[in-house]
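Can't attach files on this board, so I'm pasting raw text. These are the components:
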Amino acid sequence: MQNVWWMGEGSSGAFDEAMGRRPCCDKLGVKKGPWSAEEDNKLISFILSNGHCCWRAVPKLAGLLRCGKSCRLRWTNYLRPDLKRGLLSEAEERLVIDLHARLGNRWSKIAATLPGRTDNEIKNLWNTHIKKKLLKMGIDPVTHRPFHRPASPEASPSAVTTDKSDEQLQSQGNEGQIPSSDNRSPAEASSIDGGTDPLMSCLWEDSTPVLLDELWQLSSDDDGDNYGGVIAGRMPWEEEGSSEWLLDIQDSENFDGERSISVQGDPRR
DNA sequence: AACGACAACAACCGCGAATAT
DNA sequence: AATATTCGCGGTTGTTGTCGT
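---
Top answer:
Structure tokens for the assembled complex are below.
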């Protein structure tokens, strides 16, 4: 059974006040909280037949008591027909880790390289699975470097980020994130500007590299479980010596002479 | 069986960027 | 050029399910 705290009419107001936040939609009667199947159906059928010209208008036109923002989120993160669900494959996970080392918390950029995955999903998976896995391996999920390493102050990215990384790693949620004013990853800050990595260059330039094009095409042929041709067809990072595919890139980075994380041979789950 | 702790994930919020007026 | 509006992103929170005691 669903709770009913979200049913507009002031109840959410009290909630938001308690949380020290104002709701994004002040209008009374705007529903919040989990979506019902009926709402999902309304939204799906509306968008499939009309598209979404303007998210703000969608709820009204679709007959939903939601704000446009909520509709957009629901659609992009959950209802879109091209979405894949479930855990990331090892290859996807490796790619996420590698991209995170370079891009930082730019989830939308990372998600753009993973067909059928959303930024929200990847962010959640990162916070719940991958981060812990890295921590277990003794790797700082923020800097992607081993914890107990004698830092060289001027070259170490973690030294730039913080001088109390241990503390931050203890706390849940927001440990040691790169300051939002400049959300670039340590690797990025130290190396991307040089712009030597083709994959990353493509990401920066928002152009689609051949590799990613193929990824998307394969994905669009998806027939179910294994990301269609992506897994079955084996992506570059899955070939023998797959980790080398990453390591090659990583080696080319200026990581203070040290590799960033590459998860390989991880005995998982 | 009951309870609490923890994990997983859906959803919300605020902010900044992009676009329109 | 200035202001208003809309959209998208990233951080955070709440709910639900699972596991251990």
